[in-house]
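Researcher: We're teaching a course module on how sequence relates to structure. For the next exercise, students receive a sequence and then see the predicted structure as C-alpha cells, so they can try to spot secondary structure elements on their own. Here is the exercise chain.
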Amino acid sequence: VDAMRMVPLRVLMITASALIFATGFVVGGRLEPPVGAQGFTVVMDCGASSAPQLRTTLYFGLARPKGAVTELEWQLFLRDEVTRRFPDGLTVWEAEGQWRTPAGSIDHEQSKVLLLVHPDTAAARQSVQEVIETYRKTFEQESVLWESARVCVAA
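Model: And here is the predicted structure for the students to work with:
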C-alpha cells in the first residue's frame, strides 16, 4: 500500500522539477541575448577628445651577410624611406633581439625598433609594406618583424 502512494508523489515531484527547469530555460533564454560568432572587426569608442588610429611597430635587424647596417645607412633609410611616407612623426629606439636558430642555438642581433601611429587606411598599410620591402632588399634581410594594434590618439 505504501508503494502505491509513493508513485503519485514521485510523478508529482518529477513533473514539478521538469516544469521549474523548463520555465527557467525559457525565461533565461529571453533575458540573455544569444551569443553570435565573434568577428575580427573591433569598433573603438575613443571618446570626443581622441581618434582611433593604428600603432605599427617594426623591428629591423642590423646584421647582414657582410657586416652590419651602419648608423649613417640607418639615418638615410629613415629620412628617405620612412619619413617621406610618415611625415607626421615616429619614434625609434635601439634594441637587442634574440631568437632560436633552426639548429637550436640562441642568436642575438642589434636592432632598431620603429613605432608609427597612423590612420587605418589602405594607403598607410601599403606604405608600411613598402618600408618593410625596401629595408629587406636594401640591407639583405630575411624578414622584418612587425605588429599593429588599434589605439586612441588624443588631439
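Model: If you want an answer key for the exercise: The longest strand covers residues 106-118. The two ends are 85 Å apart (CA to CA).
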